[in-house]
Structure formats: structure tokens, C-alpha cells
Amino acid sequence: MNILMTLANSFTHDPRVYMEARSLIRAGHRVTVLAWDREGNNKPQEIKDEIEIVRSYNSRLMNLAKYDIFKMYLWWNKGYKDALKLCKNKKFDIIHSHDLSSLKIGLKLKKRFSLPLIYDAHEIFGYMITQDVPNFFARQALDTEKKWIKDVDQIITVNEPLKKYFESISNHPVTIVMNAKEIKDIKYEPSKSKKLSLIYLGSLNDCRFLPEAIEVVREIPNVELIMGGIGKPEYLKFLKEKCSKIKNINFIGTIPMEEVLPMTKKSDVIICMFDPKYRINKVGLPNKLFEAMVCGRPIICTKGIHSGDFVEKEKCGLAINYSTDELKKTIIRLRDNPKLCEELGKNGIDAAVKKYSWEKQEEKLLNVYKGII
Predict the structure, then answer these.
(1) pTM of the model
(2) Residues 125, 99: contact at Cβ < 8 Å?
(3) For the chain, how big is the Rg over CA atoms in Å?
(4) Hey, what domains does the chain have and what are their CATH numbers?
(5) What is the pLDDT along the chain (373 residues), one digit of tens a residue?
(6) How does strand 174-176 pair with strand 154-157?
(7) Are 348 and 316 in contact (CB under 8 A)?
């Protein structure tokens, strides 16, 4: 079966899409990902681990648009035209659209070719964009999703709060496929770092407590922090300059997706503090959490939101108040108590093996496809 995935990023750092595509390929299907490369920095076509990647670039009009949300509206037409070119050379059997940012393309293809459409909601899009756009656009996104979601065939999402949300706005079955990781090694191994090594690798934006974490770490002896990931160029520049002035912090910028887990395992503790005032953070369950679990590393999360509740339930890290004082106390506590780090790390591995491995998520994903077939 030929599957066309639509995706509103360049598909260089999207582990969820990669894992799903690889699982479908292992099951005997062929997967093509139509990815929107906004900056035009990547190859127009390539094969990665048997996944065919075709990138869609901005038109001249899209480049003139000041804000990403306006570019996205224009990309729905540009991406659809690029998808039609693919359909001339290959007959697709299923469309799999990731997030509201690419759903319009899937809906157009469904209508034109009478194909089943899977909607894969990584987040509640209207919640996510409130950080960057006026409330009008966020409300419009929520209303648009409620309207468009009626025409999909199946919904996949990432956790229980999102499942409840999408069930409340649609009559379609909703399946949870979590952002879990493959289990490579179930044996706990402590890091070889002489100091307590903290790490954050992920989305770099101003609701992740990153400048605050930098200021906290600079004051604590025998602790080091590695920070990297993807984000807007101006914010990366800000973080890089801030870290460059501090001896015990290393800002590494963007790294290949395949290096995230090995680097995580070399560390001692993962920092993953989300600002609780944003609705998207209240219901999210970040990739960092599952990366920490399979590596046997404790994670520091924000108390009182879904990720913090999850960590407390599985006892795989520490959930704390969103404050510099709390973070400082917690880092010192873990630095001075290696046995606690080991206990929390082992709990994470145990939970990953028993409940949250990618192998279990893969089974649910393939069952969705079997139901459609």
C-alpha cells in the first residue's frame, strides 16, 4: 500500500513522523512524506531509511508574507499542487496528514481522489499558536479544526487529554499513539560524567524556562548543562550568546535527530520545564520525557500540568514549581544524591518497557491502518 504523509516542516527533526513512517515500512507499506521546507535549506528529494521525502518550497508570494501563519495559508495551495504532481507518478492508497498545518492538503486530496484520510494531531494547534499570534488567529484555528475534522476518517493523537479533546469535537474514533521510543537496552547504566550533567535538547523557545535554567546552573558548582535544539534563528542567537559567557554551560545548537538519544544517555538529568500559563503546555507530553525514560535518566518537569502528573505517577523524575528557586534546589538535591538519580532512572526504564515502548505504539498505529484497509 502506498501512503502519502503531509507535513508542515522540513522533516529533519520530527521523530514522531519518522517512527511512524518506519513502522509502516516494516509492515510492508511504502511511505512518501511531502514536507514543507520553509527556509529551502534541504534537498528537494531524498530517501532516508526507505522513506521517500519530497520537499515543498515557498513560492515568491509566500516569501513576501511577514508571518508564518500567512505563509501556511498560502502553502495549503502550493503544497496541494506539489502533491498533485506526486499523484501523477504514483497511485496512493491512504493520506496521512500531520497536524492542522497540513490537514487542508489532505482534505483536498481525499476529495479529489476519494482516498481515506488519517488526521494525526500532534497537539491542539489553536493552543500552540497562541504564543506567536493574536488571539483571533488561535480562535480561528480551533473553529477551523472543528469544521475540517468532520471529513477525516480516523484520528490519531498523542495522549489522553488530547484524545478527550478530539472526541469532544468529532464523532470519529480517536487512537492514542504516544511519542514513545524504541527500547534499545533495558539495563540501567550510570553516566561517566564527573559532574552532574544536565541536558536539554528540543524546541528552543521562550516558554521552556531556558534563560532561567541558564542563570540557575551558572551558580551551582559541580554541575554542567548542555543545551541544543531547533528554534527561530534570533532566539538561538540569544541563547548562544548567553551561554557563551558561562563556563559550565555548552550551547551546541541544532544536532542530527539520531544523536539525541546517545547524548541523552551520556547525561545524568534532563530538564524539561514548561510554562504552565500556556494551554498547550498544560496538556502536552513532550518527546523529552520518553527519551529520558528509555535512557534511564530522571527528568525535571513542571508540577501541576499533564507532564508533571505523568512523571509523578511513574516516579521517573521530579515535578516542581515553575520557579528558579525550585529548580536550583532540585538540581542540588540530585547532584548530592546519586542513588535518587539511579532510582528514578530505573523507574523510567521499567515504565518504558512495560507500558510506553514504541513497540506498543506501533501495534496501535498498524491497527488503525488495518481498520481502514
Answers:
(1) 0.93
(2) yes
(3) 21
(4) 2-180+358-372 (3.40.50.2000), 196-356 (3.40.50.2000)
(5) 999 999 999 999 999 999 999 999 999 999 999 999 998 999 999 999 999 999 999 999 999 988 888 999 999 999 999 999 999 999 999 999 999 999 999 999 999 999 999 999 999 999 999 888 888 999 999 999 999 999 999 999 999 999 999 999 999 999 999 999 998 878 899 888 889 999 999 999 989 999 999 999 999 999 999 999 999 889 999 999 999 999 999 999 999 989 999 999 999 999 999 999 999 999 999 999 999 999 999 999 999 999 999 999 999 999 999 999 999 999 999 999 999 999 999 999 999 999 999 999 999 999 999 998 7
(6) parallel
(7) yes
Cell numbers at 23, concatenated: 513502522
Residue 76 carries which side chain, given as an amino acid letter? W
Report the distance separating Cα 248 and Cα 319, nearest Å.
Answer: 24
What is the rounded distance in angstroms from the CA atom of residue 354 to the CA atom of residue 253? 34
All cell numbers assigned to 174: 480517536
Q: 201 is written with which cell numbers?
A: 535538547
Q: Give the C-alpha separation, 48 to 100, whole Å.
A: 25
* CA pair distance 38, 52, nearest whole angstrom: 19
Cross-strand partners of 95: 4, 117
Helix (H) or strand (E) holding 265: helix 260-266
